[in-house]
Specification:
By secondary structure, the protein is an alpha+beta fold. The protein is about 40% helix and about 20% strand.
């Protein structure tokens, strides 16, 4: 770890809190140990010996708060993933997630652009606060030379994302929004025709954030969870129970949107540090 980096990290986190407090968001706190994680094919939550799992995200619990009527909320806290370790990954990491009712992924895009510009100006003024965007369709046609809407090849999509799309995004430099995913990569996002209203934000080629216009159809959400559970079974991964309280609450969210932003990677980007071990206590 790096003490100077940790001190700057504390100032960055404090500024993030004030950014959202100034804009009328309410900070919330939800459980770290949960009974039913969202079943996602490639995300594994560490089991707890006394029951349940350590969360990979507070997403489901925060959406329940939206369904109860809260309008603008954020949370900064620990999240966990099994089997992830490297210069940009740690089994425990820190995330900020924020959610808005009566909004779409474009509103969150405005939020995060303003947040990033604020943090860059205060903590990395030497970096240009430049943001571009490219759709998934444009990126795959230009850099991988195929259309994920025509060829429904999930393995090829993931391979080309790592070997062709992300290197191209890195070459673009600065902040890049990768917009509008194919419907089979929607995860928990709402569809607009055959496009999933989802974006990911990269900074110099490193993924920082993942955003959705939130799916608010309980039947469709249950269907997607069941598909993910079956995919996990086929891979021999843990079979997570479905949080039916969440399923039954999604329609009460109305039109909402939210995002998960990795604090550790954000600090790395602002301080030009390439190893996560230098920006958090391990």
């Amino acid at each position: 770890m790096n003490i100077a980096a940790l001190l700057k990290r504390a100032r960055i986190v404090s500024r993030i809190r004030s950014f959202f407090d100034e804009r009328g968001f309410i900070e919330v706190e939800t459980p770290v140990r949960i009974a039913a994680p969202a079943p996602e094919t490639n995300i594994d939550c560490p089991p707890v010996a006394t029951g349940g799992f350590l969360r990979a995200s507070p997403e489901l619990q925060m959406k329940k708060l939206l369904a109860l009527g809260m309008e603008k909320i954020y949370q900064i806290g620990p999240c966990f993933r099994d089997g992830e370790k490297g210069s940009r990954h740690n089994p425990e990491f820190t995330m900020i997630e924020w959610y808005r009712r009566d909004s779409s992924y474009l509103n969150i895009k405005d939020d995060i652009t303003e947040l990033m510009r604020t943090l860059l100006a205060e903590f990395a003024p030497e970096l240009e606060a430049r943001f571009q965007e490219i759709t998934v369709c444009e990126a795959y046609l230009k850099y991988a030379h195929w259309d994920p809407w025509i060829e429904n090849d999930h393995d090829r999509f993931d391979f080309d994302m790592a070997t062709k799309i992300e290197p191209a995004i890195k070459a673009m430099g600065g902040g890049v929004f990768l917009m509008d995913y194919p419907p089979w990569a929607a995860s928990l996002s709402r569809l607009r025709g055959d496009v999933a209203e989802r974006w990911e934000l990269y900074w110099n080629g490193v993924e920082l954030a993942n955003c959705f216009s939130e799916l608010n159809d309980s039947k469709e959400q249950l269907k997607r969870f069941e598909i993910a559970r079956e995919e996990r079974r086929e891979l021999g991964e843990a079979d997570y129970p479905i949080d039916m309280e969440f399923i039954n609450s999604v329609e009460a969210m109305g039109l909402a949107s939210g995002v998960a932003l990795g604090i550790d990677r954000l600090v790395m980007a602002l301080l030009n540090i390439s190893d996560i071990s230098l920006v958090r206590v391990l």
